[in-house]
Amino acid sequence: MDVIPVGPSPPFSFGTERNPFGGFCRKSSGPRVRPSPTSKPPREQRTLKRYETLGLLIASLLPPEQVVNSEPRRPLPSALLAPRSQRTSLSLPAPPLGPGPGRRSWHRGAQGQEGILRCHPDLAGRELQQGTLTAESRREQRGAGLMSLDAAERLRLAELNAQYRARFGFPFVLAARLSDRAAVPGELARRLQRPPAEELRTALGEVKKIGRLRLADLLGAAGLAGP
Ligand SMILES: NC(=O)N[C@H]1NC(=O)NC1=O
């Protein structure tokens, strides 16, 4: 069977933190490095990024022996090296959350799971208003009705998103296509109350759902969007 090469990443960055799947995400603190709408990466780089994301999604579904890291000095994410039966290792031991030295070293450690969450824009956030979301995110958020919120609903979500980020250190992530505008604030308020380690696992599970749905779209396949 063919092997799927992983990495190296193309030379673009939305920050300086490398996520566990090879891309760059925003750092949790400090000034945010954000491309302005007028400085989008060139078309080829966006296309490359899409292919890289697709390759990594596919790699995450394969047994480790079929995944080859084409960048010698960059180790594969540990989540990809685990036997497939344990690949739900996005439910690995809880990292220390919140401010403090433990969190920093965890960030730099082998897991770095939290980084993937920071790749996600807020639901109904500024990027949606400013039109700077990726086409996929925009479609997902629009499908959930998040583009039609009134001012009070938007404010409520913005407050909840800010509280969530302050508590957990990463943005609230939810597979918008499996939800809707009426359910999102309640779900956000509910998850805001959860213990950090549990919430991290839930949030990573949502990333997997989003990935599966996007992969199903890309492959034109039905049935990949299961639990
Ligand atoms: N924060 C967050 O959940 N963002 C997203 N969810 C989703 O389904 N698409 C997104 O952009």
UniProtKB/TrEMBL annotation:
Q: Which SUPFAM superfamilies match?
A: UraD-Like
Statement: the UniProt record of this protein carries the keyword Nuclease: no
Q: Catalytic activity, per the record? A: 5-hydroxy-2-oxo-4-ureido-2,5-dihydro-1H-imidazole-5-carboxylate + H(+) = (S)-allantoin + CO2
Domain Oxo-4-hydroxy-4-carboxy-5-ureidoimidazoline decarboxylase: residue ranges: 110-216
One Pfam entry name: OHCU_decarbox
According to its UniProt record, in which pathway does this protein act? Answer: Purine metabolism; urate degradation; (S)-allantoin from urate: step 3/3
Q: Which EC number(s) does the record attach to this protein?
A: 4.1.1.97
* Low complexity composition-biased segments: 76-92
Q: Which region ranges are annotated with the description Disordered?
A: 1-46, 67-109
Keywords from the named record: Decarboxylase, Lyase, Purine metabolism
Gene3D superfamilies (UniProt xref)? Oxo-4-hydroxy-4-carboxy-5-ureidoimidazoline decarboxylase
Role description: Catalyzes the stereoselective decarboxylation of 2-oxo-4-hydroxy-4-carboxy-5-ureidoimidazoline (OHCU) to (S)-allantoin.
The family note in this entry says: Belongs to the OHCU decarboxylase family.
This protein's name: 2-oxo-4-hydroxy-4-carboxy-5-ureidoimidazoline decarboxylase
Q: Which gene encodes it?
A: URAD
